[in-house]
Amino acid sequence: MTEPGSGSDRVARAGIITAASRGIGQAIAAALIARGDRVVITGRDPQRLAAAVAELGSPEQVIGVPGKAHDDEHQQRAVTAALTTFGRIDYLVNNVGANPVFAPLLEVPTEAIRKIMEINLISALAWTRRVHQAWQGEHGGSVVNVASVAGLAPAAGIGAYGISKAALLHLTRQLALELAPTVRVNAVAPAVVKTRFAEALYSGREEEAGAAYPLGRLGEPTDVAAAVAYLLSDEAAWVTGQTMVLDGGAGLAGRLG
Known about the structure:
Blueprint: E1 14-17, H1 23-34, E2 38-43, H2 46-56, E3 62-66, H3 72-86, E4 91-94, H4 110-139, E5 141-146, H5 159-179, E6 183-190, H6 206-211, H7 221-231, E7 243-246
Parallel strand pairs: 1-2, 1-4, 2-3, 4-5, 5-6, 6-7
Helix pairs in contact: 1-7, 3-4, 4-5
């Protein structure tokens, strides 16, 4: 398996991070660039993506490929861009997530559930397949899926989202088994992290929301980025099929999220 090394002999690795124009995805990109890696980042909004690219680094370090993560043509463009620009795809971070509804599961329109599953689950498999076919199948590498504590226990109002993330965690284990020994596949499952995606869960009450966690605060995008960077590193070379729960200790108190 090809893994990042350390020291002066380290070969600059490259990877793809989906939904990385802001929040957790952008923090992951920043952490990887800081250690000398090169990344292709994706996002739906071309202007926001361009701004993130400019903030993250030079064209030698990062490029953006706009598009919807579950779109086949967009996936292929990103894979082609990574190989053309950087010559390799050592890792893939499936960070995209959608939760367009907040309602009891039986009240969620079937089309909304299909959309959630398409974006949160099926796209992760599709990206992994493309990257494996293009590079990792021959050279090895690593995949990290960004899931959620919502995939670990039921929660009111976000049932469809939680089901999709639970399926993503099982997909992680399945692919870890099937792609070993040359490709490692792991996941992270964050609780509430201070991003625009989760803003409705803490806006106007951040101190109160954070106090519910044993560590006394909500998560930061950098908390997740550090965990993902570890799972993509040589230090995690004997780790596969695992889910790293990032919940500020909430699970200790019998609460997740």
